[in-house]
Every structure is written in C-alpha cells, then in structure tokens.
C-alpha cells in the first residue's frame, strides 16, 4: 500500500512542481496544456519504471490492487472503487470533448530586440550609436534643457495623452479600447529599462515597425514619423523621462 | 482613563467621517498649489488658467475643452443656483476623482497627499480672484427613495412640455435636434443619460438631483430650481426626475472587461433580416469601445460615438450580424433636420465590419486597420445614405490603411439594412457562409475563432474618410450547435471500463476457486 501511495504522490508532486515553476517563477507564463501533457507522460513512464524495477518492488506495488480485486472480505470497497473509476474516466472524457469557447491566447513580446538601424526622415539611423541630441544640455545649459522638456510636454499632450494618459500611466481616455494596452511610462518595467535610441525607434516606427514576435498587427501605437518631426520626437522623449523621474539606460551604465 | 477612551473613540469616529466625506474644506496654500499646477495642469489649462494649454492647441483637440478658470465657472457644483461659484469641496472632488467622459483625469493616483489637492483648489481659484466660498449647498429636502411610483412620476416630468427631452431626447440618449454651444463657443452635446460612464458627477440620484438644481454652468443645461424658470421643479419633483434619470443610466450594453468574443448561435430557420426582429433578443450582445482613429492621414480626436454592440446568428447557409450604436445625430446629407444640427461638413453615418480574407492558422493577423498587403481584409460597409440616395451596402478589400479596393457587394450576396430610432442605429449585415472565390472573400467555418473588428463614422461629427472611430481585433465564433457526441462517447468509455473491471474480478474469483 505504501509503495502505491508513494508512486501517486511522486507523480502529482512533479505535476504541481511544473505549474509552480511556470506560473509563479516565470511570471505567470501559462504552460501550454499539450506541452504539459507530454512532460507528464515521460514523468509517468519514468516513475513507473523506477517503482517496478525489481520483481519485489513490482509485487509490492501491485499487492494492494490485487488484494482489492481478489480478497472477498474487501467486497464493499471493491464495488465502490469499481463504480467510481468508470465514472471518473467518463466525466474526464466528457469534459475534454465538449468544446470550450475560450478565446485563443495571444502571447507577445513587449520589448523585442531592436533592429540595428531605422530609416526615417530620409535618413538611416544607427541604433547602436544614436543619442538624444538634446540630452547634453541637461548638464551644459539647464535653462535650455528645461525649455526643450516643456516643448516635449506640448507634443505629448497634443499627441500621446489620449492613449498613454496625462499622468503617463498608460490609462488615457481611450486606453481601455485598445488591446494591447498603451504602455505605462511610470512603471519601472518600460522606459527606465530602455535607451533613448530604442524609444526613437519605437516612436518613429510605431506598431507596424515591430518584429513579428511583438505582433505588429495588433498594436495601435501610431507611426509618428508620419506626424512629428525628428526634433519633436527627441523632445517628447526628454519629457517622458523628466515627467516620470526615470533615467534612460545608457551605454556607460552597462 | 474612561474619558481617554471616549476621546479616542470620538477621534476615531471623526476620522472615519472625514475619510468618508472629505467635504470639509481645508485651507489651501496657493503657493504650493502653483508649483503642483505648473507641473501637472499647465499642459491643458494653460499658464494663465485660461484653458489654452500648449499654446491653445489642446482646446482645439479636445471636446469638451479644458476649463477656462478665469471665468470662475465650474460645471459640477453643489452650491445653490443663486450662487455663481462652487464650494471648495466641489473643485476638490473634480480634481481628485476627475470627470469621466472627458480628458480630465482623476489625480488621486499621483497626488497622494490630499493637501496638495486643497492647495490646487486655492490656486485654481486665484485665476478668477475667487476668495471665499458660498459655504451653502442645494436644499435637498428629504430624499425620495427610488421606487417604481417615483420613477413613473419622474418619467412624466422629464417629458412634460419636453422639459428635459427637448435636449436629452425621448429616451434620454441626447439625440434631440438642438444645436448647443458652451460659453466659450465650443460645441456641446446633451449627455446620453443611458451611459452611466459618461456622467461627470456620477449617476447617483443625489448627484443628478444636484445637477438638475444647479444646472451645468458654462454649458446650456439649465437649472430647474431657478425661480424664474417656466419649467421649474419643486424639491420633491426633482427627486422623482433624479430617480427616473438614474433608472435610465442602466444598460445591458456596457463593455464587459475580458469579453472579446461575439458568439453566434446557430438558428434553425431563416436569419432575421430586419434590425427590429425579436429573434435578435435571443442573441448575446457584446459591446466594445470605439477609439478615435489617430493612426493615418486626417485623424479624429473628438469622440462622439463611444461604443458599439454586436450580436450574431448563423444557419447552414448564412451569417447575420446586428450592430447597434448610440448616435445623437441621424446624419443624412441633404436632410433638413440633419443639416440644422451638423457642423458645416457633414457625411453619412457609416459602419464597417472588418474580417480577414483568410482565417489565420496561427497568431498572425492582418494589420488591425484595413489589413496589409500580405494579409488582406474584407470590409463590409453600410452607409445611411443621403437625402437622394437611400441607405446602401458596399464591399471593399483592404490591403493597408489607405488602399481599399471597391468590390461588388451583390456579387457575393452581401446585404444590409439599417434603422435609426430615438438615438440608436441598428444595422443588420448578412452574407452567405461561403462564396465563389476563397482568394478574395472570407469563408466562414463553424467553430473557428475568426478575427473581427469594427469601424464607425458619425457624419455629424465631421467623420468622413480617414476620420472615423475603430476597434482593435476581437473574435467572432460560429458556435456549433450542441450535440450529444461527447455524452455518448463518455458513456461508452465508462461502460467499457466497467466491463473490463467485471471481467477482471470474475477471472480472479475463478482462479481462486481453481
């Protein structure tokens, strides 16, 4: 009996382990059920082999089952088990076969690797070396810097707040109608993780500029090179960092 | 000791009261208010507080425009009609909670210290040189609880002499044909009272009572406590009207977060071709937000129609989709009523259903606005027509925001019919499940998740061509009719297992005997 319980516990232990690792540790990445099935098949086969390696262990494992079927004194339990097993199998099969109308899951990479260069304004920008031309004024001429930030704010309120929100929290008046939702710049997981050149790429080329793993066909982020000048894009980037109190990532800090 | 406990208890009670009702104004420090204002509010309300943020550009883009504080006029106030200005707590509330349905957000998520908000109140008041506050509130008398009897009375008062319906329309959808302007000359629209999420000051009966009593300063919503008003209402009557309006602000056509699927049930007979057909009531409605098009060419910033509701049915031959959306204006170019209310440039009211030509196998879908070159979409258009030509259906194949090829709708059997009534358009579109050419037209399949998106034009809001509202991709599912296969299969399986068990027990018993 002990061996049988051990086998069952080992099997379910591994199962729960998989779910914990994927769900909790890997930030709620849901493990596809077909993959889980495959893993559990191999786990089941392995565990079974270990538990039935010698004849002795095999006997130990099957003894309680044998007893249940053959021992006349266990008739009551046998009848109950014999009724429960087909019921369980039947209802599992039923649950698997009725169509479930859950919408397909769409997974997308939020911050894909950028291309090495972008084309905009009739030029090609090398993203490895591209820098915000206004950033240097932060130290050199704080007054001038403040003016640029302010101009960036005006670009923002005229163009971006509808989606990203006046509070830059990704919750503008129309945000709820979009999927994926506009990104929250207050969050430490967005612009604080990125270089200004990355933002330049994202803002000038928008949703359609994304690679396939980031589902460019879904993103409502406009292609801003169609509406804003190069200067306006750099200024709005200054504003995004200034307003949220975040710092862009830079090559030096790597 | 005992008194100590008592003060503590009283203190706790006082704290609770304060927390529940921050109406007790605290003196604000205009100096600090200015600092916060210049960081957070200038962008829209402007340095001078005149609502001309970003050099006046914002006022042009937003409807309603940011409040001009130099007028001292505030829309949502609790001070009585006789007082021109609001109480400090009124301004406080709008800054803290925001004004739903407008671009004015609630600031409590970033201004965590309430004192900052009181300081802003003090600073905002300086633009109109307001000093004290009225300190009085509307006389609420005794609140009449909402009950069928009261709602019935309110209904009558609402429509009596078109008291409210002259602006808010028969069913409260804001669809009466009256052209209204706010104090700064901006176009204003009577609220659609069936949409609780559009109320600047909540759809709670007490809030509605207050609005009816004070009116909405700066907009054309009058006060019904004004002794000079011919349509004046007593306190009790105002409660009845408030209860009635509150009962309107309940709709099953609300966006349910997480609902992304329009589920079509299989019908046994013919599909309803008429939008008013009662057969539609059995189909489950799904409502989605409409977002202004800000992605290509001429863009829209001022939202008019904000949601669209879809239902679908299908049978062995066809699929039919019913679209419903509230639109204050029936835009028929050339029609007299329509022209009185429209802005100079008017187009037809239109709607489009967008579907991929090929149902995607994997994740990849066409670009959500009119597809892309490699992944074209079908666009089923319906237009309200002009005074000369009646409503019409059109078919287009989109391969990009700006490239939609016109096709012959009749050739693929696409049909549509639209009806406008009391502020709501209802449009049915129908097409056979399959067509002659799978390369140019979607072939519907039972049980397949099919991407679907919508586009909408309010012709009286200047929405023509690339100026429209849109949704991102959702799903359409032709739900297979429930059948018994799973149940039968499960029963057979269970019987098999039982049979094996019995055989096993038998043979074991035999072995024992032997």
Largest chain-chain contact? A-B, 52 and 66 residues
Distance between the termini of chain B: 90 Å
Estimate what percentage of residues of chain A fall within beta strands: under 5%
What is the C-level CATH assignment of the largest domain in chain B?
Answer: Mainly Beta
> How is the main sheet of chain B built?
14 strands, mixed
> Unreliable runs of chain B, pLDDT <50, ≥5 residues?
1-23
Number of domains of chain B: 4
Give the assembly state of these chains: heterodimer
**Helix and strand element order of chain B:** HHHHHHHHEEHHEEEEEHEEEEEEEEEH
Characterization of the model:
The complex is a heterodimer of chains A (254) and B (514). The mean pLDDT of chain A is 89. Chain A starts with a helix and ends in a 10-residue tail after the last helix. Chain A folds into two domains: 2-97, no CATH class; 108-244, Cytochrome Bc1 Complex, Chain D, domain 2 (Orthogonal Bundle). In chain A, helix 1 runs antiparallel to helix 2 (33-51) and helix 8 (196-205) packs across helix 9 (230-244). Chain A is mainly alpha-helical and 254 residues long. Chain A contains nine helices and two strands. In chain B, helix 7 packs across helix 10 and helix 9 (205-214) crosses helix 10 (235-248). Chain B is an alpha+beta fold. In chain B, strand 10 and strand 11 form a beta hairpin. Mean pLDDT of chain B is 90; it is low at 1-23. Chain B folds into four domains: 20-126, Cytochrome Bc1 Complex, Chain D, domain 2 (Orthogonal Bundle); 148-247, Cytochrome Bc1 Complex, Chain D, domain 2, CATH 1.10.760; 253-478, Immunoglobulin-like, CATH 2.60.40.1190; 485-514. In chain B, the strands form two sheets. In chain B, strands 3, 4, 5, 6, 7, 8, 9, 10, 11, 12, 13, 14, 15 and 16 form a 14-stranded mixed beta sheet that branches. A two-stranded antiparallel sheet of chain B has the order 1-2. Classes of the chains: A mainly alpha (254), B alpha+beta (514). The interface between A and B is large, with 52 and 66 residues.
